[in-house]
Structure formats: structure tokens, C-alpha cells
Specification:
Blueprint lengths: L1 H9 L6 E5 L3 H6 L6 E5 L6 H7 L1 H5 L5 E5 L8 H14 L3 E7 L8 E4 L5 E4 L13 E10 H7 L16 H8 L4 E5 L12 H21 L3 E2 L6 E2 L4 E2 L4 E2 L4 E3 L3 E2 L4 E2 L4 E3 L2 E2 L4 E2 L4 E3 L2 E2 L4 E2 L4 E2 L4 E2 L4 E9 L2 E2 L4 E9 L1 E3 L4 E2 L4 E3 L9 E3 L4 E2 L4 E3 L2 E3 L4 E2 L4 E2 L8 E2 L11 H7 L1
Parallel strand pairs: 1-2, 4-8, 9-12, 10-13, 11-14, 12-15, 13-16, 14-17, 15-18, 16-19, 17-20, 18-21, 19-22, 20-23, 21-24, 22-24, 23-25, 24-26, 25-27, 26-28, 27-30, 28-31, 29-32, 30-33, 31-34, 32-35, 34-36
Antiparallel strand pairs: 3-7, 4-7, 5-6
Length: about 425
């Protein structure tokens, strides 16, 4: 959540960013890696103004600057919205410019009360009268201060309120009451100033960010059949004329090329999908590379470090792990290939498995170009199947097979006449 806020703030090209941390500060620090960031420790959490006072030395080091202060729980805020606030502040040469929004339901937000001679008071919800709670214009917790004005007003803030905390909102009343240049910037983007206070609100904010991403990709030529049922992470890239069906989840740093088709209930994580790929229903792809014109699924599972080369085909109930699957090769159904290298134009029959784990180590299977693996074959690694070799159905292969050879390993079939009749008589 803080990462989204920092992304928007960074778009203003600030000289420095100070983050006030307290509770679980080490966890917050681990999640942030930006060159301009300085962490400031608030030993006790005694309110928003107290948090700013914890950053007093930081502010003094930039006393000739403007200071933007905002809460870290506003992940929907855009750089453009912040920029309009900063521009108003500088154009009017204000001591303080703060953002408000007209809300249908401002519950939880401080209300703006306008007095005489330019005095403005922000009344917190818990301090507000029933009449004040009817006010629709609310403070959203984003301020731009002249640093010198901020340093002057901070010591004047009292904690004489129901929570016994120091409210940064009091700076508005103090400065405006003293005749300072305090102005309100009422944003037209009220939907961006939704604070996140619990996991449900986080889910709503996340969904809004996802829809923004889908809208951006749609403008770039990607088709989404049902945006409401689709999840696309912020860093995902998708090429033009790709089609995304409902109930698709695409996460992490996944990149998908042009003219692909992603069918319902597909889940892709941190993978590279090239052009013209078709991924059928209920397929899971993790940390894998899929080259051009590949068809995958339905109900396939590509585990990490799998590569499907150009024009290959993977059918239903096929699982691969740490495998390179060659150009034009096919594995139609009911197959497991692990720790394998498969060449070009190889046919993998139904029910084929690589026995790659001996209980202690993983071993490699190599299948060279043009090999034909019959149905129900077990390949016990380490093993190498030579170029254009044939493996008979139902075989358990434990030794290397030379190129152009036929390998069959089966016990001889036995038949006992009338065995069933005799058994029933007994």
C-alpha cells in the first residue's frame, strides 16, 4: 500500500522523501527500496502532528522548501492529483494549502468549518457535533506547507481532545486564525482519497487499482471480456490484440506478447509469454517461458523453470517442471516431464512420466529430436533417448536408447483359458 503512495509522490520529483515509521518499523523498511527515502522513527504514536514533529530535523534540513505531508494509506492517489495541489500552493504563495473533497458519505473524515475572516477549522469525526457531521466537505489528509510556517506552528498544537493526541489538522485553524495564507484545494477526484483501515478496504482499493490497469491496457489494444472478474497486477505487460477471457489471474512481472488468447480460469505468475500463444482453460503457469505460437492446456501445469519452444503443444493434465520442450514437440495429455530436455518434433504419448527423483537427488532426462515416446512409458532418469528413436508403449526404460532404435521393455503376455469360469465355480 505504501509503495503505491510512494510511486505517486515520486512522480513529483521530490528532493527527498521522509517516511515516519513506528510500529513494526522494520517490516516497513524491508518493503521500501528507493534512493531518495529517509526513515524517521516516531517512538510513541501520539497523533499525526506528533508524527510530523518526529520529522522536525528533516524539515529543518529543508527549511527553504515546500513540504508535502500525506498519510501512507491512500494507495489510489495519482501523481496528477497531488501535482494540482502543489501548483495551487506555489502559484498563490500560501503558507498552507490542503486538500478537501466533497463526499456523499464522509464518515471517518474531519469536516471543514468556515469561520469569519478566513478562519478554517477541521473538526474530527469524534469531536464533531451532529450538525457538523452533516457537512459533506471533508479533509483528506494531504497538505503542502511552507517549511518555515510548519516549524512555527507545530509547537502550538495541543492534545486537549477526546483522544489526547496531537492533530495535524489543528495547523489549519491556528494558521488561518492568525491571519496566515491558508487555502483549500477541493479535488474533483474524490474517489482517489479513500483511506485504507482494514483488509476489506484494502481489497476495494486493490480492485480499483486493478481496474485502472485493465483500462490502461485496453487503451493499448488488449481485449478484456470481463474486467470485473479479471486480476492483472500493476507490473504486468500485455501486447496488442491479445484477448483475455473472464476469471483470468496474471501476477508479478509477467509479460504477454501480441495476439495471444488467454482462456477462462488461467493463472499466470512471473512468466514470459511470447506472440500468438493460446492458453486454454484452467491452466497454471509459474515462472516459465513460452515462445511464439505455442498452445497450452486445458488443465496444464507449468512449474518454475519450464520453457516451451516455438510451435510446441501441451495438452490437458500435462505437468512440466524445470524442462525445456523443443520446437514443434507435442505432449497431448496425462504426462509428467521433470528435469528434462526435449528436442524438436518429439511426440510424447499419453501417460508418459519421467522418473527423475530417486529419493535423494533429481536426475535429468534427455530426449533428442524426432523421438517417439509411446503411451504409458516410464523413463527412469538419468537417461538419454537418441534422435528419432522409438519407445514402445507400456515400457519402463532404464538404459540409454541409441538413435533410430526401437526400445521395448515389457513382460510377456500370459493368458489362462477359462480362468474366470473356474474361479467362479470355486
Amino acid at each position: 500500500m505504501l509503495g503505491w503512495v510512494l510511486q505517486s509522490v515520486s512522480g513529483l520529483d521530490p528532493e527527498k522523501i521522509g517516511i515516519v515509521v513506528g510500529f513494526q518499523k522494520q517490516d516497513v523498511k524491508k518493503g521500501i527500496d528507493l534512493p531518495k527515502v529517509e526513515f524517521i522513527h516516531q517512538k510513541k504514536q501520539l497523533g499525526t502532528a506528533h508524527a510530523v514533529r518526529s520529522a522536525e530535523n528533516f524539515i529543518k534540513n529543508h527549511s527553504d522548501k515546500d513540504i508535502l505531508i500525506m498519510n501512507g494509506d491512500l494507495p489510489l492517489i495519482r501523481t496528477e492529483t497531488l501535482k494540482s495541489l502543489v501548483e495551487k500552493h506555489r502559484k498563490e504563495k500560501n503558507e498552507l494549502t490542503f486538500m478537501s473533497a466533497e463526499m456523499d458519505n464522509p464518515t471517518g473524515f474531519g469536516r471543514l468549518v468556515y469561520g469569519e475572516k478566513g478562519k478554517i477549522t477541521i473538526v474530527e469525526e469524534r469531536e464533531a457535533t451532529e450538525e457538523e457531521k452533516k457537512i459533506k466537505e471533508a479533509n483528506v489528509g494531504i497538505y503542502v506547507f511552507n517549511a518555515k510556517a510548519l516549524l512555527k506552528v507545530l509547537p502550538k498544537i495541543s492534545n486537549k481532545n477526546k483522544k489526547g493526541e496531537y492533530y495535524l489538522t489543528d495547523t489549519v485553524e491556528i494558521l488561518s486564525g492568525e491571519g496566515g495564507q491558508v487555502r483549500v484545494h477541493r479535488t474533483e477526484n474524490a474517489g482517489e482519497v479513500v483511506g485504507v483501515n482494514d483488509r476489506f478496504e484494502m481489497a476495494l482499493a486493490s480492485k480499483e487499482l486493478c481496474l485502472r490497469k485493465i483500462k490502461t491496457l485496453s487503451a493499448e489494444g488488449v481485449t478484456f471480456y470481463d474486467p470485473d472478474s479479471t486480476w492483472i497486477d500493476a507490473e504486468v505487460k500485455i501486447g496488442r490484440d491479445t484477448v483475455i477471457y473472464p476469471s483470468v489471474v496474471i501476477e508479478g512481472g509477467t509479460e504477454i506478447g501480441k495476439e495471444c488468447v488467454i482462456h477462462p480460469s488461467v493463472h499466470i505468475v512471473d512468466s514470459q509469454i511470447r506472440d500468438g500463444v493460446k492458453i486454454l482453460n484452467s491452466t497454471l503457469i509459474e515462472d516459465s517461458l513460452i515462445e511464439d505460437q505455442v498452445k497450452v492446456g486445458p488443465l496444464a501445469h507449468l512449474r518454475p523453470e519450464t520453457t516451451l519452444k516455438k510451435g510446441s503443444k501441451i495438452g490437458n493434465f500435462v505437468e512440466m517442471k524445470k524442462t525445456v520442450f523443443g520446437e514443434g514437440s507435442k505432449a497431448g495429455h496425462l504426462t509428467y516431464l521433470g528435469d528434462s530436455i526435449v528436442g524438436k518434433e518429439v511426440n510424447i504419448g499419453a501417460g508418459t512420466i519421467t522418473c527423475n527423483y530417486d529419493g535423494k537427488k533429481k536426475h535429468k532426462t534427455i530426449i533428442e529430436d524426432g523421438a517417439f515416446i509411446g503411451s504409458g512409458v516410464e523413463l527412469v532418469a538419468p537417461i538419454k533417448i537418441g534422435k528419432n528413436a522409438y519407445i514402445g508403449a507400456g515400457s519402463t526404460i532404464t538404459k540409454d536408447v541409441s538413435p533410430y532404435s526401437l526400445a521395448v521393455e515389457r513382460s510377456s503376455q500370459k493368458q489362462r483359458k477359462d480362468w474366470v469360469k473356474n474361479r467362479r465355480k470355486k
